[in-house]
Design a protein that fits this description.
Elements lengths: L6 H11 L2 E4 L9 H14 L4 E4 L8 H5 L2 H12 L7
Parallel strand pairs: 1-2
Helix pairs in contact: 1-2, 2-4
Length: 88
């Protein structure tokens, strides 16, 4: 997403306003720095305001590794799993 023309911020605003955000196949490949930052921004802005559904074939205990950067992974996962409902 282009940041210089403002389209990045517009796209983030659209994503953040949705009642339900579905992230399918989470962790299928490791996140790079830009993807990590975008995910953090989206999750932070949606936290406790809107629903986010993640699907993944990757076990939850491998999500830190897929996100990378321990501190950011901790922050993202804290917001995702804190009030999460997981199937049995």
């Amino acid at each position: 997403m282009a940041k210089t023309d403002g389209s990045y911020l517009k796209e983030l605003a659209k994503i953040e306003k949705q009642d339900l955000l579905i992230i399918d196949d989470f962790g299928i490949q490791p996140l790079d720095a830009q993807s990590r930052a975008s995910l953090m921004e989206i999750i932070e802005d949606r936290h406790a305001k809107a629903s986010t559904l993640l699907t993944s074939q990757l076990p939850v205990n491998k999500w830190h590794e897929a996100i990378g950067e321990q501190t950011i992974a901790d922050a993202i996962l804290d917001r995702i799993v804190h009030d999460a409902h997981r199937p049995n």
